[in-house]
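WARN no homologs supplied; continuing
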Amino acid sequence: MLFGVVLLDMIGFGIVIPILPFLSPTLGADKLDIAMIIASYAVCAGLCGPFWGRLSDRIGRKPVIMICMTGAAACYGLLAMASELWMIYAARAGAGLMAGNLGVASAMMADFTGSGERARGMGLIGAAFGLGLVLGPVIGGLLSVDGSFLVPCLFAGGMSLLAVAAAGLFLRESLPRQHRAEQRAERAAAPAESLWALLGRTRSRLLLTQFVLHTASVSAFTYLFPLWVGDLLAWGPHEVGIVFGIQGAIMATSQGLLMGPLVRLAGEIPLLRSCAGLFLLGLAIAVSASGMTGMLASVFVGLTGATLCMPVLQSLTSRRTPAALRGRMMGAAASASAWGRVLGPLLAGALLTHFGYRTAWSCFAVVVAVYFSWTLAQPREDDHPHPA
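OK structure emitted
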C-alpha cells in the first residue's frame, strides 16, 4: 500500500514539473525566474526534510505523510489559480516546505522491512518515484489543452488528495503508539544530541555527503542532456521526452523488480560499487560522445547505474541508525538529496555557460569518481551492520 500512496503522490508531482517552464512565462517570468522557481522548491525541501523526519519519530509516519500530501494538494490548487508571478513562487516554495514524503516514506519502509530486505524495500519506493515521473508528464501533456494549465494543476491536486484518502483508509502505521512511547523513553534516556553528533556516532557523515554528490550529479545530467542533444542533434521536447520516458521505465523496472535479486546475489556494498561504476562510465562516455549513439549510451548507462545506487544508500543509512532516530536520519538524507538537486543544475549551468559541454561533463565525472572512490572504501561487513 505504501507503494501505491507514493505513486499517486508522485504522479501529481510529475504532472506539474514539466509544465512549469511553459506556465511561468505566461505571467511574465524570464529564464532566471524559471530557474529560481525550480530552485525554490528544492531549497525549501532541503530546509524542512529533517523537521518532517523528527516529527514522524514523535507522532508516527502515517500522520506526517497525510499532512504533507494535504499541503501539496493545497499548493497545486494555488498554482492552478495563479494570476501573478509571485503566486507561482509561493506555490512552489510551499510545495517544497511540504515535501517530507520521500524521507518519511523511506523511514516507514525501513520500519516494515528487515535488514536483508531493506534495499529491496527502498527499491520499491524508488520504483514508485520513477513510475510517477513517467506517468505524470504524460497525463500533464494530455490535460494541457489550448495552453491552459488549470486542469493539469487541479488534477495534480486531486491525485494528492486521492493519495491522502488511500493513506487514511489503507496504509498501516509502521510506528504504533507503544513503539513511539518506547522510543521516546529511549531518546529521553540518552543525552541530547545534535544531528552532526548523530551522524558522527553512526558513521554517516560521509554517507550523507554521497546523497549530495549523487543527486547533484543526476540533476546535472538531466539538466545538461536536453540542452546537449538540442544543440548537437537538433532534438526537441518530443525526442527528449521519449528518451526520459524509456529511462523512467528502466528505473521503475530495475528498482521494483531487480533490486532484491541483485542484493541477494552480490550484497549491498558490491552492488553499490558496480552501480556507481556504471554511473561514472556513463559520464565518461558523455565526455567523448559526439553522435547520437554515444549520447544515448551515456544517458542509459549512466542513469541506470545511478538509479540502482539510491536504494542502497537509503538502506545503508537506515541500518546504521537506531530505530528511535530513523525518521530524523531519513529526513536528513532527503534534505541532503534536495540540496544536491539545487547545487547540481546551478553548477552545471555555470560550467556550460563559461566552458561548454565537455568541461561540464568532465567536472561531474570527477564528482562521481569521488563518489565511486568512497564506495571502494566501504567495508563489506556494512552489508549487515546490525539488526533492524
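Residues 2-383 form a domain with the Growth Hormone; Chain: A; fold (CATH 1.20.1250.20).
OK
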